[in-house]
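Quick one, tokens below. Sequence please?
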């Protein structure tokens, strides 16, 4: 009851990736997830979305943060033995990138996709192997100017942190900070914890072209998910 996410949920990202795959003729799914209760909950959501889309999860690869090179080799071998049509991750961009690089050496045809978390790092680590990869993003492009929040972010960065590269993570933090300020303004001068929570639960915020809506029955916030592709020019296009 005290948590108010701003960005879309991970399951919305999973659904967007699988929906794109299903519309392009892909039918089987692989999922790289943490070997934890949270990771297994994400796997359940992936299976649910796959069933709704008429797809099948054929490979689940749980990992631990200290996964060794040998363990990643074994996971890559499992992919090549029964390659799913598409595969994506939840988190651990560094490990996922190593897994993709190992699996790609076998020339398998699996379409690798990824969630927003660590997308910039993953693309940079993979280099040419990332060309053509589709990523779910929970904010608009930080470098394009199609959304008001992106233009506002660019102006703020140019003023406060000139020369620092624009990133999806930076824009997500900016979006969250803006939501917090708007929630404080909605609360007014009598700022208590109870009044703050009550104000948010009565609010719908326009975050520069993205909406975040809350009620005492729902703390979902934004449902915005967009897809980007990493191009041969080493940049994300939407």
């Amino acid at each position: 009851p005290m948590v108010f996410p701003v960005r879309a949920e991970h399951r919305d990202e999973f659904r967007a990736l699988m929906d794109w795959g299903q519309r392009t003729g892909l039918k089987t799914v692989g999922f790289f997830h943490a070997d934890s209760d949270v990771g297994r909950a994400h796997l359940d959501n992936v299976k649910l979305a796959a069933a709704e889309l008429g797809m099948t999860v054929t490979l689940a690869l749980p990992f631990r943060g200290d996964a060794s090179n040998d363990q990643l080799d074994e996971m890559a071998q499992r992919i090549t033995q029964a390659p799913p049509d598409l595969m994506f991750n939840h988190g651990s961009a560094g490990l996922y990138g190593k897994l993709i690089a190992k699996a790609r050496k076998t020339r398998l045809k699996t379409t690798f996709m990824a969630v927003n978390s660590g997308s910039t790092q993953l693309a940079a680590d993979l280099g040419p192997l990332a060309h053509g990869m589709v990523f779910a993003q929970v904010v608009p492009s930080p470098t394009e100017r199609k959304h008001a929040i992106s233009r506002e972010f660019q102006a703020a960065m140019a003023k406060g942190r000139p020369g620092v590269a624009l990133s999806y993570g930076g824009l997500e933090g900016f979006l969250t900070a803006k939501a917090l300020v708007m929630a404080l303004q909605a609360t007014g001068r009598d700022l208590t914890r109870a009044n703050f929570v009550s104000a948010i639960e009565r609010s719908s915020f326009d975050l520069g072209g993205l909406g975040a809506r809350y009620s005492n029955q729902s703390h979902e916030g934004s449902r915005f998910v967009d897809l980007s592709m990493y191009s041969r020019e080493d940049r994300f296009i939407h």
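The helical segments are 10-23, 37-52, 69-81, 93-104, 119-126, 148-160, 168-187, 193-200. DSSP finds eight helices and nine strands in the chain.
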